[in-house]
């Protein structure tokens, strides 16, 4: 059965490319939009009270298949294939391909070439922008916003160590479905960190367990290497070394660095065992 999180199909409507594969009353081709807000929530239902599935960051592309009169749009993210409802106000027709990404944990965009001006938006790591020109210490986006040049990098220029990226999120509040430095969850931390290193990564921990790296034999579990991924049912953590992990979790309500043995014992006491450890390289 197709994963509903990754399949743009409902009883009343489905993507045109799924015709003949799934049943729906009608099929539509969809249209490409880009995310123009700093962070756009993708929700289970078209309501701000609905569960947060994930977040779309500025510059991401999304194929929209349906829009309602209440200001919501239903579609699929190009980056990881996730399907859900986005606020219509966060969408616009693509104007130009992104040229750079935000490489700082977060940065401020200003309306002019001065840090004394009130910022117009806060952008988080992984957001994509189109730089039109440079102005001394700023990169000027196509919208005319001024972003500090030290906080951006050219698309395609990847971080060397994805674990170091994850470590920068320590202290970020835990947010179910979050994937930015305003709030992040366990699988969001893995995805954003791997993406910064130029590596594709599914959104949820069960998807990551099935897709990333190779499984370690339990006999190897005591000899972890930096970058190994530890999986519990519904949770994932990143090994920093043989003894410590970094993970976003609801116990601390934050992304933290924690002793591996203590974390495993604490999670075991809550009723969950490590189910897999996977090595990326």
Mean pLDDT: 97
Trace the largest sheet across and list its strands.
20-25-21-22-23-24
Question: Could you give the order of the helices and strands?
Answer: EEEEEEEEEEEEEEEEEHEEHHEEEEEHE
What share of residues are in beta strands?
35-45%
Number of continuous helical runs? 4
Structural class: mainly beta
Largest sheet: 6 strands, antiparallel
- Cα-atom radius of gyration: 20 Å
Number of strand elements? 25
How much helical structure, as a percent, in the residues?
10-25%
Uncertain residue ranges: none
Instruction: Report the span from N to C terminus.
Output: 30 Å
Shape: globular
Brief overview:
The chain has 281 residues and is mainly beta. The protein has helices at residues 162-167, 186-196, 205-211, 260-269; strands spanning 14-15, 27-28, 31-35, 39-43, 52-57, 61-67, 72-77, 83-87, 91-92, 100-102, 106-109, 121-124, 128-129, 131-135, 138-141, 146-148, 152-154, 179-180, 183-184, 214-215, 229-232, 235-239, 244-249, 254-259, 276-279.
Task: Walk me through the structure.
This protein is mostly beta strands. Helix content is 12%, strand content 35%. It is built from 4 helices and 25 strands. The chain has helices at residues 162-167, 186-196, 205-211, 260-269, and strands at residues 14-15, 27-28, 31-35, 39-43, 52-57, 61-67, 72-77, 83-87, 91-92, 100-102, 106-109, 121-124, 128-129, 131-135, 138-141, 146-148, 152-154, 179-180, 183-184, 214-215, 229-232, 235-239, 244-249, 254-259, 276-279. The strands form 8 sheets. It has a 6-stranded antiparallel sheet with strand order 20-25-21-22-23-24. The two termini are 30 Å apart.
